[in-house]
Amino acid sequence: MAKEPAAIEAFIKAKKNKYKEKYGIRDDQLASITSAKGTGSYADIVNNLNTFVDYIGKNGIDAENLSGLLTRLSSGSDATRMGEAWVLKYLSGNTDNLKSATKLTFEKRENIAGLGMREADLVVEKGKQTIYYEFKSVEGIPPTDFIEQFTKDLTRPGFTQDNLKWVFDRTKVSEDAVKRGIRPYVEKCLGNDFLNDLGDNADEYVEEFINKIFIVK
């Protein structure tokens, strides 16, 4: 933990958070969180955590494996810590997306029939609706392993354009770069046969498909 006043203040606030034990957050995890290039400061990360935990605690939302996210923030690679810090930054600044949620699960692994395991960064359960999130704090488009990951997302039982969100970090890549750069790879995942069946509507369909799923914040 950094020794700056802002870092110490953030740590004390998190340590006293009344929802800390409910979500399995330990003091040693808080103290071990380490910022990396592009993640913001220790105080930024912990304040984002506090905002997020306060929201889900006040609204009675269950959260599974939040402790695992904090472990990765302390012992993961720079890229891992950057990714997890982005998750917290997004969630703390976009709590409206969690309205009516009953449960959140971080790093949820599922076996996609015929394709193997797929790990979602976050799964949000809202009654009968389940929304899968993939967070990316990267400069390169497409991200590493995009074809494999996205193909599994499309094959997941119950997939719709409304229950899958890929969220990119605007400080790393622009919205235009994401949506232009990702399009040929999305089209490859959808397949020529499917797109040919759409005929003259294919371009409009793909554009709407990308706009619904790929978010830059």
Give the class from helix and strand content and strand pairing: alpha/beta
Q: How many strands, what sense, and barrel or not for the largest sheet?
A: 6 strands, mixed
Mean pLDDT, rounded to whole units? 95
The tally of beta strands, per DSSP, is 6
> In terms of per-residue confidence, which ranges show pLDDT below 50 for 5 or more consecutive residues?
none
Question: What's the overall geometry?
Answer: globular
Helix content: 40-55%
List the helices and strands in order: HHHEHHEEEHEHHHE
Give the helix tally: 9
Radius of gyration: 18 Å
Task: Throw out a few tags for this protein.
217 residues; 6-stranded mixed β-sheet; alpha/beta; globular; 9 helices
Q: If you had to describe this structure to a student in words, what would you say it looks like?
A:
With 217 residues, this protein is an alpha/beta fold. The protein contains 9 helices and 6 strands. The two termini are 27 Å apart. The mean pLDDT is 95.
Task: Give the SSE layout.
Layout: H1 5-15, H2 27-32, H3 42-58, E1 62-64, H4 66-75, H5 78-93, E2 103-112, E3 116-126, E4 129-136, H6 146-155, E5 164-168, H7 175-190, H8 192-198, H9 202-213, E6 214-216
Parallel strand pairs: 1-2, 4-5, 5-6
Antiparallel strand pairs: 2-3, 3-4
